[in-house]
Amino acid sequence: QVQLLQSGSEMKKPGASVKVSCNTSGYSFLDYDVTWVRQAPGQGLEWVGWISVDDDHTNYAPEFQGRVTMTTDTSTSTAYMELRSLTSDDSAVYYCARAVTSYFDPWGQGTLVIVSS
Amino acid sequence: QSALTQPASVSGSPGQSITISCTGTSSDIGVYNYVSWYQQHPGKAPKLMIYEVSYRPSGVSNRFSGSKAGNTASLTISGLQAEDDAYYHCTSYTSSSTHWVFGGGTKVTVL
């Protein structure tokens, strides 16, 4: 079945960077895009960005532009999201999801990122 | 503050029907049919329940249905069951540079 397995929890200091991985299986990696969404504690979902796997074209939400980079490794069917210049406001669970034109399905299990001094 | 507006909570008794609204603007829900709904149990990842306003993925109960009128989308759960007790999030594509916007989420409580 289609699965997205994310890397484990991370604890970072303010100003640092974090790179989260999303290893996919059960489908042809090149046939679908990947999107990233985050959820701060007790909050709703927030779209971070989208990467087209076949041509590496990216779209980032304006609030993350300049601080986020999404990449893929087609040899391992893995997507990555790197977020730089972390602040406490970036503490959240980060999800990857397989992206179809109009929806996201399925989702990874989430990666908790805690930013604290 | 989320771009789409959802009620914070909705409750109902087993067997009843409830409807969750998701209000956007003429830049998102009002102009695109790319509205989807996700169910999320505490500590779990979101699960797709409805896509493109009213389509149900394979495996999702037909007790879940979606609709749209103007700038507002709705998710209806009929025959409420204990397992429906969860958060529900709506999302829509938007013509703004944000591309995708979410609602703040609605907690459904089965009494």
Walkthrough of the structure:
By secondary structure, chain A is mainly β. Chain A has strands spanning 3-6, 10-12, 18-25, 33-39, 45-51, 58-60, 68-73, 78-83, 92-100, 103-107, 111-115. In chain A, the strands form two sheets. In chain A, strands 2, 4, 5, 6, 9, 10 and 11 form a seven-stranded mixed beta sheet that branches. In chain A, strands 1-3-8-7 form a four-stranded antiparallel beta sheet, with no helix packed on it. In chain A, a hairpin with a 2-residue loop joins strand 9 and strand 10 (103-107). In chain B, strands 1, 3, 4, 7, 8 and 9 form a six-stranded mixed beta sheet that branches. Chain B is an all-beta fold and 111 residues long. Chain B starts with 8 loop residues before the first strand and ends with a strand. Classes of the chains: A mainly beta (117), B mainly beta (111). The interface between A and B is medium-sized, with 24 and 24 residues.
Brief digest:
The complex is a heterodimer of chains A (117) and B (111). Chain A has no helices and eleven strands. Chain A has 117 residues and is mainly beta.
